[in-house]
Design goal:
This protein has 269 residues and is of the alpha/beta class. The protein has 2 domains: 204 residues, 2-enoyl-CoA Hydratase, Chain A, domain 1, CATH 3.90.226.10; 47 residues, Orthogonal Bundle (Lyase 2-enoyl-coa Hydratase, Chain  A, domain 2), CATH 1.10.12. It is 46% helix and 15% strand. It contains 11 helices and 10 strands. Strands 1-2-3-4-5-7-10 form a 7-stranded mixed sheet, sandwiched between helices. α2 links the parallel β4 and β5.
């Protein structure tokens, strides 16, 4: 457990495949199957869903990481054997529900990535809003070599970050990107040395937590949908969301503080 973070009481704190702790407005969720390289079992994906739909009031951001040497080595393949078509569809939809609860949940999520970020692990990472990669992080989609296809939302999320052609390459050839390549193609936004990812992720989450909640909500929920719309529909959606955000009491207070000289201007850090 990270310094200053305490175990989270209530339902999320009872989940045995996750370590869930809190420091003020930030919750840290850590995948806790290190002996399996944090491979995602049915139980783990269900616990992720439960955790993210039951975040307590007052939480403004989440950091997601993995215990042990890896973030997540993907789907626990032992659970795919002898699954029929109907149950396979429902299994995929279970993953979709869990990862939608992250991407379109209550608060922004920062993923801290180290070691393996492959298959379902990459699908999980791309459901988060920001991604920090340590030196050791590597990225791959080995589904093609396993005789399967992505089922956790990767075909919808990953091309939006790196493009269809690059994702096709990973799946057809088994190519693996290192952390620098992941940054270059847009899979991650931040690069740090080994051992520094969690501190950076927490710092980003703490900064995000100071934003107006409705502004964060707009970025999480409106921005990706606008990007999927035709320009005229997107601009109209933007107008509606801008009107909602700027008319909240929080926004009005922040605007007055800026006009009164009580809020800092944008500077390069």
């Amino acid at each position: 457990m990270t310094s200053d973070f305490q175990p989270l009481p209530g339902l999320p704190g009872t989940l045995d495949l996750l370590q869930v702790s809190r420091n003020d407005a930030v919750v840290h969720v850590r995948l806790n199957r290190p002996a399996k390289r944090n491979a995602i079992s049915d139980a783990l994906v269900q616990q992720l869903h439960t955790c993210f739909v039951n975040l307590p009031e007052g939480v403004r951001a989440v950091v997601l990481s993995g215990e042990g040497a890896h973030f997540c080595a993907g789907l626990d393949l032992a659970e795919l054997v002898e699954r029929d078509i109907g149950s396979a569809v429902l299994h995929s939809r279970m993953w979709h529900a869990a990862f939608d609860a992250i991407q379109f949940g209550r608060v922004p999520v920062v993923a801290v990535l180290h070691g393996a970020v492959v298959g379902g692990g990459l699908e999980l990472a791309t459901s988060c809003h920001l991604r920090v990669a340590e030196d050791s992080a590597y990225f791959g989609l080995p589904e093609g070599q396993r005789g399967i296809f992505v089922g956790g939302g990767g075909s919808a999320r990953i091309p939006r970050l790196m493009g269809v052609a690059r994702m096709t390459d990973l799946m057809l050839t088994g190519r693996v990107y290192d952390a620098d390549e992941g940054l270059q193609v847009g899979l991650v936004q931040y690069r740090v040395r080994d051992g520094e990812g969690l501190a950076r992720g927490i710092a980003l989450a703490q900064r995000i937590a100071t934003n107006a909640p409705m502004s964060n909500f707009a970025v999480m929920h409106a921005l990706p949908r606008i990007a999927d719309q035709a320009q005229s529909e997107g601009l109209f959606t933007e107008s509606l969301m801008a009107a909602v955000a700027e008319s909240t009491p929080d926004a009005q207070d922040r605007l007055r503080a800026f006009l009164d000289g009580r809020a800092g201007k944008v500077v390069k850090s």
